[in-house]
Design goal:
76% of the residues lie in helices and 0% in strands. By secondary structure, the chain is an all-alpha fold. It has one domain.
Length: 308
């Protein structure tokens, strides 16, 4: 299967996970680190694949880059959800979604000697514009803290992508993926056990029901929220695997710019659920907003055409 198609499927899976996360951040959980921790805990399942890795690279560079890839991804998620908790998603997502491919392009140019053709570069720019349009909406101005968290999150996601590309070049996709996910799991445990113990308790409460149902400060998430959290993170994990495979086979810059597909999917999902979930994108889809989103869908399709 073509790596571009695999990447698109990965972003679609992430789109569903993002919609679930957005609902749960508003209603079920209080700590942004909880989500980063859940992703890391799911990453620990990769332990079952360790015996199937035939050869581990012996160089120190491989292990350091694997550590950087896994750790920066977890901290990027923490910063991203922290920004979402402080401002409307329709203000945070455009910042993060547009900056990730830009930072990735800079990092790939500096450390991977990546060069895009004129056609691909044009498609790259068009997809960034489409991302901003598709994820825009009516919302209040984000705080300075939320903006800095968004920028920091985008930078960390980009570092993870660039370092991951180098890891896959050394060990291939399977070995590199196993190594980076192990470090992601260790990083998540570090966050939940040492850096944010309240998030650790909240993450644990998903799997272990408390007799008192939790205090007002640490409310026990309901069964529906727990199931949605696990489904969302499982879809996010699948999306991550597919996107990482795309990075291993193609351009990290192009792969990250293709996040526009994720937002295009959310627009279509909002149209289908506009009567039941009118606030899925953070705004009601008026005729003017709908026309703008549809135009952005066309722009997305043209951008994808240029990079294929």
């Amino acid at each position: 299967m073509n790596w571009i198609l695999i990447t698109i499927l990965g972003h679609l899976s992430n789109g569903v996970a993002f919609a679930i996360d957005k609902m749960l951040l508003r209603s079920a959980f209080t700590r942004s680190a909880t989500y980063a921790g859940l992703v890391g805990l799911l990453s620990s399942l990769i332990l079952v694949a360790v015996p199937f890795v035939k050869i581990w690279p012996s160089g120190l560079d491989f292990w350091l880059l694997s550590l950087v890839t896994g750790a920066t991804f977890i901290f990027a998620l923490w910063a991203f959800f922290g920004a979402l908790a402080r401002a409307e998603a329709t203000r945070i997502v455009p910042i993060v979604g547009s900056l990730i491919p830009i930072f990735t392009l800079i990092g790939s140019f500096a450390f991977l000697a990546e060069r895009l053709s004129d056609k691909n570069f044009l498609g790259f720019g068009i997809l960034i514009v489409a991302t901003i349009i598709l994820s825009s909406g009516k919302a209040g101005k984000p705080s300075v803290q939320a903006i800095w968290l968004s920028v920091g999150s985008a930078m960390l996601f980009a570092i993870s992508s660039v370092a991951g590309k180098a890891v896959y070049g050394d060990a291939g996709f399977f070995g590199g993926f196993v190594a980076t996910r192990l470090f992601a799991a260790f990083s998540a445990l570090f966050v939940l056990i040492l850096l944010d113990r309240e998030a650790g308790r909240e993450a644990l409460s998903i799997f272990i029901k408390r007799k008192d149902g939790g205090t007002s400060k640490h409310k026990q998430p309901g069964a529906t929220a727990a199931i949605l959290a696990l489904v969302g993170q499982s879809l996010g994990a699948l999306g991550f695997v597919l996107v990482q495979y795309g990075i291993s086979r193609g351009s990290p810059s192009i792969v990250n710019a293709m996040q526009a597909v994720q937002y295009a999917f959310l627009v279509l999902l909002a149209l289908l659920l506009r009567h039941k979930a009118p606030q899925l994108l953070g705004e009601n889809l008026t005729k003017k907003a709908l026309l703008l989103k549809v135009t952005a869908l066309v722009i997305t399709a043209f951008g994808l055409f240029l990079i294929v």
